[in-house]
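Teaching note: in complex prediction, the entire set of molecules is handled at once rather than each chain in isolation. The prompt given to students was simply: 'Predict the structure of this complex.' The entities are:
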Amino acid sequence: MAEDEKAGEGAGGGAPAFDIDFTRTLQQFGQLSAASVEMWSAWRKTWASLLQERGGPALEATMRRMVDPSAWAGGDARGVAEDLEQVFAMPRLADVLAVDVQAFRILEPSLELLRIGRDHTMVATQVWTEACRRFQARLEEARKARRRFDGPGEVVDLWNNIVDDTLIEFNRSEHFADLQRRFVRAMMRYRIEQRHLAEKVCEVYDLPTRTEVDELHRKVHELQREVRRLRRAAKAETPRERPQRARARSATG
Amino acid sequence: MIPHHPVDPMSAMLELVETGTRAANATRMLGRVRDRDVDVATTPKEEVHRIGSKVLYRFTPQREKLLPVPVLVIYALVGRYTVLDLQEDRSFLRNLVDGGLDVYVVDWGHPGRGDHLDDLGDYVELYLDEFVDVICERHDVDAINLFGICQGGVLSLCHAALHPEKIRNLLLGVTPVDFHGDLVEGRPGHGFMNVWARSLEREDIDLMVDALGNLPGDIGGIAFSMMTPLRSLTKYNLTLVEVGQNEAKLMNFLRMEKWLADRPAHTGAAARQWLNDLYKENLLIKGEFTVDGQKVDLGNITMPVLNIYTETDHIIPPRMTTALEDHVGTEDYTALPVKGGHIGVFVSGRAQKQVQENVVDWLKSR
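The expected output is the structure of the full assembly:
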């Protein structure tokens, strides 16, 4: 074929075999390239806009909390974790590294514990103030009645009894019960989230986790119960003998 | 402004000096005592059976046996049995042995995380029932005397209801039966554990167990401290100075401290039932409490029952205990009120003597 083309060139007097308009081709290529860039740019802008929309307000709210300690102690603790989740908890893509938003969950109970500590301090201050008020009132009564105390010991006893009564009253109040419920919930959730983080580390180093060991315990425990049922069934089938038995049976635990 | 109150300044100064001297005495005495000097549970005994960390002991008889049927004493899961043998000259268990009884006791030990699935059914049907069988075999008897104290009384009630043929006489000490009995009494300062447990939702208790596995003994310790706030606040200042003036009193105080510090955890599964089914739902008295899949019917308790309680018990208010009379199936029921507090019944010399005499007489007559 190459030889035919060469022959053709020779026969046609040097005219080219293909009529290519390079200028036009280059223009078309340029247009296509520009369209492609525009398309990618639009896609990038869409993503940027999505991220901005998704994370911007949350990030702003988080930053606002971070620079305001009173908000950390007194704000809505749940909000912080939710804000962080809003920023980082993208839908899972199989081949893209993802942020484990579970790690943020520990923030929520931590902040709640801070709030409970603050609330308890406020309530405890009121309780001790009330104890002081009652003590002063009793001293005033004694003064008006011109009653003499045997000595400082009796006054200390008076104070102690007032404190005891006041604290018992508080410990049995709905106010205290509410604080206690909140404390138990926050503390236990904190503990569970802490364990979750520790187990992540254990997995990295191939160490057994609490959850795995608990599962083993569960299986052993179920087997123990099964053995007990079988032993009891076997015993029920064997009539009890009255002659002297061994001093002790072997341990089963 | 604090009003002027009539206290003689000279007597106040003298009292201050005296208090300083007493504090110095107590500190000096405390400084001489080592932990190993504070011995508890010294009554001679031998291990006769073991299931894991749960041990059955038999106390060495000190005199000829008055009764052929042995007594098995069961204490709470949340406290060590050693409180029943706290000091040599005031030991509840030693007194029973000296009274001519053949005494066994179960040491529940300290459950570990691996035991967290042990529920009250396991304690009754797996452990307690096996210990009862072991004693029956050793003594060649069909039934023994079971003496349950506090939470151990609840385990004993469950066992006696499920296996009445194995229990000849049932003795109970400060045992809760009606877990809402404190509401009937309504005495402030009494039944704080009831108020505490009821203030939690079932989900809160489940959450605690899910998070911790077992409920640590410290949680019980905190609850007990809140029950008597002043005593807790003044224990290591006023009380210690007071008892520190006398070596015997100081040693008694330290033995009690040692026992308190030795508080076992409550296995998670047992704690769920104890707090949810009993303290919150009060299922035992309703006849709806189940262990190991079996309903505990107190009406099955047809053997003689001696129920010991104290009017001044602030942990288990008396109504929680005395309610038993209306629910057991026996016609031989005796309630024995004793002076003292919940723990005092078993550590105070006077109360111990009263309990020992009554228990021995009651058993002898049956």
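Point out the following to students. Chain A is about 75% helix and 0% strand. Residues 22-66 of chain A form the longest helix (45 residues).
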